[in-house]
Specification:
The complex is a heterotrimer of chains A (275), B (233) and C (306).
Chain A: H1 2-40, H2 46-83, H3 86-90, H4 97-130, H5 132-136, H6 138-155, H7 158-191, H8 196-229, H9 235-270
Chain B: E1 2-14, E2 17-28, E3 32-36, H1 43-51, E4 58-63, E5 66-67, H2 70-75, E6 76-79, H3 91-101, H4 107-117, H5 130-142, E7 148-152, H6 160-173, E8 179-184, H7 187-190, E9 196-200, E10 206-211, H8 212-219, H9 223-230
Parallel strand pairs in B: 3-8, 3-9, 6-7, 7-8
Antiparallel strand pairs in B: 1-2, 1-4, 4-5, 9-10
Chain C: H1 2-23, E1 29-30, E2 36-39, E3 42-47, E4 52-53, E5 58-60, H2 66-69, E6 72-79, E7 85-92, E8 97-104, H3 108-116, E9 121-125, E10 133-137, H4 138-141, E11 144-149, H5 150-154, E12 157-167, E13 170-180, E14 183-188, H6 189-192, E15 207-212, H7 216-233, H8 241-272, H9 275-305
Antiparallel strand pairs in C: 1-2, 2-3, 3-8, 4-13, 5-6, 6-7, 7-8, 9-10, 9-12, 11-15, 12-13, 13-14, 14-15
Helix pairs in contact in C: 8-9
The chains are: A mainly alpha (275), B alpha/beta (233), C alpha+beta (306).
């Protein structure tokens, strides 16, 4: 049943995704050409330089907009499917509440992950088009080979471990983003009878702002301490310590994902009131 | 054997004002039951509790021996009082959706009923009129071979000709071994199809219940007249 | 009448051509040894700018002659305020780039006078807040000679030292004051062969000869200026016992206390719950517990290292 639910959820969200992805790729190409124009000729008129710079900015802005649009799509899908009249169909399906929530969570992670992937590819495409000669040249190949050689020489096999940990941490952060959204929407829909959508947006925005502020303050206070403590690490110890730190972050983010999931599930399972 | 059992069911939206207060109700299998009462007496609330859309404050509900959950949902075919499909979907996509999720869904019956009504399966829901959307909804619900059909105000806001069609569709397409619970306050139209009736009063109290035909014979009154008598203002 | 109109038109065209030829850009010429160049009628001669800090807000790209283009691809001329100093960047056809600084001939005397007017007074600029500087004798900065290692240089904070005089936006940089573990050191650029115009970053060097500043008065001034810089830039959040303690407390709160609280709550609910709830609380318990274990291991490693 989870597979079936996920199929319909992904179909609904990816209906718009392709169009938005195509726009971001086009903007990446256009931005890349603007970049190439700026790099090629230092003696351009001011007007041309200004327009090219604006095009570059628009291209970067379009990548952010793409990500935000997907976040909105995920929000709308979750809210509509659960807390509008469509909820009458959703919650009367012969599927468990956990399957419904798991499908939405997976849909969110897959959609945001795909979006992040396309945005990263867009940035690479923009850089490539902006400086084609360099990226096709022997020099770039040599620089890249030297970079990887130096990386492997300094961190060796840990590079694969780091890559795996960063991928898992990325997925955990995406899951947290999605579950945080769902928890706020579900909470708003439980406590408010009328104007659920506005309440959901308001609670999400408020909670997100507060959460971001707390994280920034904590990072501001905590990072100096971490830098002081890790200052005296030898080269041999720095790699395993870095790997452990990444693992710590994965567990930490995962823990909060678990809490948010539990809260949301409990609200859907025990507090649902679709009147 | 009872397909539906409600024991001591209580539900309130506001503290101190219960919509249902200790309701006890049993619906046997293979019966068409009318859940009748004035507006606000808790008919829709009861239906939604059985469908799993609301959580009771206390009490138990079981459908076919299962508590409310995924298993009971598989046995229930629910028609709400309002459209509940995504309007971006086509009729054929909805049929496919129902076929995927409900093992008892009869695709051929659904297409036949659509053809009878001249509804194009390739049409998007948002292009259909309100009445047609409701008919599509009804067709999908009645194309299932469920054990319990919950129809919440199926003929409210519909013209008399359509009401007759809806009722005849209900009667001719439901699973014969199943039960149907119809909530309505338009008793005159519905009473000829009912096997049993339940008069639900404010606070979810069962004021009167029984076999419709037997009651008409005993009292010499129609259910509508009886309703007016019981719920006289 | 027609004849008069024709004469007027011819005169206008002739005068326009004349104006254009008169106002045509004077040629850009360079001497063979690149020691002299002239542009727009002004002559510039090479000057040593390794100790100078100059801003070049104006840029020009002169048109090259056929002969010049045989060797040069492009020339960029960056001018200082009043067009007194000019930094020329020569791009050759083979890809090589050559940069040189030039002074306008009619300003050379004044420039040399400025260079030689160095009175021995230097200003150590802490950058923030504005005018947070210490003025001292250059000789007082040269205490005991030391050689600073790569590790020390990588951990240093550094502040610019320049002569207490300025001319047409030109400043002479004499060196840099480094702060390493509460001690101050002076690096004299000329003695170390460092060009101020290239920018100075101590962490780029394997070792550097410097002088440990031992003059009490200068040290007191440096400490006062540094404290002012720290308080303005970072407030309580830097190199302060209270700040370090607060940071450690936040670290423990974030990575030990909160997960411990979550662990206790999760264990409680795991025991009390049934079915799926027990599973998900169990996962939260596992993650919180795992995080605490990893934090403990890390804390132990870092405690031993420090």
């Amino acid at each position: 049943m989870l597979r079936k639910l996920l199929k319909y959820d992904l179909n609904a969200v990816f209906r718009l995704w392709w169009a938005a992805a195509a726009v971001s790729v086009i903007m990446a190409v256009v931005g890349g050409f603007a970049n190439a124009i700026l790099n090629a000729d230092r003696d351009l008129p001011m007007a041309v330089r200004t327009i090219a710079s604006m095009v570059q900015f628009l291209a970067l802005f379009s990548f952010i907009a793409f990500f935000l649009v997907m976040l909105v799509m995920i929000f709308v899908r979750y809210y509509r499917n659960f807390f509008t009249d469509e909820g009458y169909l959703t919650f009367t399906l012969p599927v468990s509440r956990k399957a419904l929530l798991n499908s939405k969570a997976l849909m969110g992670v897959i959609a945001l992950g795909a979006t992040a992937g396309v945005c990263s590819a867009d940035l690479a495409l923009m850089a490539f088009i902006g400086d084609r000669d360099y990226y096709l040249s022997e020099k770039f190949r040599n620089d890249a080979a030297r970079f990887f050689k130096e990386m492997f020489e300094s961190i060796g096999g840990y590079s694969f471990l780091y890559a795996l940990e960063i991928a898992v941490l990325g997925a955990a952060v995406l899951l947290f983003t999605v579950l945080f959204l769902y928890t706020c929407v579900t909470f708003a829909s439980m406590i408010v009878k009328k104007g659920k959508l506005i309440a959901a947006i308001g609670i999400y925005y408020g909670a997100n702002s507060l959460f971001s502020f707390i994280i920034q303050m904590m990072v501001l206070f905590v990072v100096p301490s971490i830098m002081v403590w890790t200052n005296g690490l030898s080269d041999q110890m720095s790699c395993p310590v870095a790997a452990l730190m990444l693992l710590l972050l994965i567990c930490y983010v995962g823990m909060f994902c678990g809490i948010l999931y539990t809260l949301t599930y409990r609200m859907l399972d025990r507090k649902l009131n679709l009147s | 054997m009872n397909i539906l059992e409600c024991k001591n069911l209580t539900k309130s939206y506001k503290k101190g004002h219960p919509v249902l207060a200790g309701l006890n109700l049993q619906i046997p299998a293979g019966r068409i039951v009318g859940l009748l009462g004035p507006n606000g007496c808790g008919k829709s609330t009861l239906i939604k509790l059985i469908a799993g859309l609301l959580q009771p404050d206390s009490g138990e509900i079981s459908v076919g021996g299962h508590p409310i959950g995924a298993e009971s949902n598989a046995l229930i075919s629910y028609l709400p009082e309002r459209p509940y499909f995504s309007t971006n979907m086509k009729v054929s996509q909805l049929i496919e959706f129902f076929r995927e999720f409900y093992a008892d869904f009869d695709v051929q019956r659904a297409y036949k009923l659509l053809a009878d009504l001249g509804i194009d399966p390739t049409a998007q829901l948002k292009t259909l009129s309100k009445g047609t959307k409701e008919k599509v909804q009804l067709i999908l619900v009645m194309s299932r071979n469920a054990k319990l059909y919950l129809l919440d105000e199926p003929i409210a806001g519909v013209d008399p000709a359509a009401r007759e069609y809806i009722l005849s569709t209900i009667v001719s397409n439901y699973n014969p071994g199943a039960s149907i619970v119809i909530t309505t306050h338009l008793i005159t139209d519905v009473e000829q199809v009912l096997d049993d009736f339940v008069f639900l009063g404010f606070g979810g109290q069962v004021l009167k219940a029984g076999n419709a035909e037997q009651t008409r014979n005993e009292t010499g009154k129609s259910l509508d007249e009886l309703f007016k008598e019981v719920f006289r203002c | 009448m027609k004849k008069r109109i024709c004469i007027v038109i011819v005169l206008v065209i002739l005068s326009v051509c004349l104006c254009m030829s008169v106002s045509a850009e004077a040629p850009f010429t360079i001497s063979e040894d690149y020691k002299t160049l002239s542009v727009e009628g002004a002559v510039y001669t090479r000057v040593d700018a390794t100790m100078l800090s100059v801003e070049y807000p104006y840029m020009d790209i002169p048109e090259l002659t056929e002969e010049q283009m045989q060797e040069l691809k492009c020339v960029y001329l960056n001018y200082s305020e009043e067009m007194v100093l000019m930094q020329a960047e020569f791009e050759f056809n083979d890809g090589a780039i050559f940069t040189a600084t030039y002074i306008r001939d009619d300003y050379r005397e004044k420039f040399e006078g400025f260079l030689s007017s160095f009175s021995g007074k230097v200003e150590i600029d802490f950058g923030w807040p504005e005018d947070n500087t210490v003025i001292a004798d250059a000789a007082d900065l040269k205490g005991s000679p030391v050689t600073l290692s790569e590790d020390e240089l990588s951990l240093s904070d550094w502040f610019q030292v320049h002569a207490v005089s300025e001319w047409n936006g030109v400043t002479i940089f004499t060196g840099s004051v480094l702060l390493i573990d509460d001690s101050y050191y002076y690096v004299a650029f000329k003695e170390c062969g460092i060009s101020a115009s290239d920018g100075f970053f101590p962490y780029e060097y394997m070792e550097l000869n410097a002088y440990e500043i031992t003059d009490e008065a200068v040290l007191a001034d440096l400490n006062d200026a540094h404290d002012l810089y720290i308080d303005s830039e970072y407030g309580i959040f830097y190199n302060d016992d209270f700040a370090e303690d607060l940071s450690s407390i936040c670290l423990i709160l974030l990575f030990a206390v909160i997960p411990a609280a979550v662990l206790v709550v999760a264990v409680f609910f795991t025991i009390r719950s049934k079915g799926y709830y027990r599973l998900i609380w169990g996962v939260v318990t596992g993650l919180a517990g795992g995080e605490l274990v990893i934090f403990t291991i890390l804390a132990e490693i870092l405690r031993r290292v420090n």
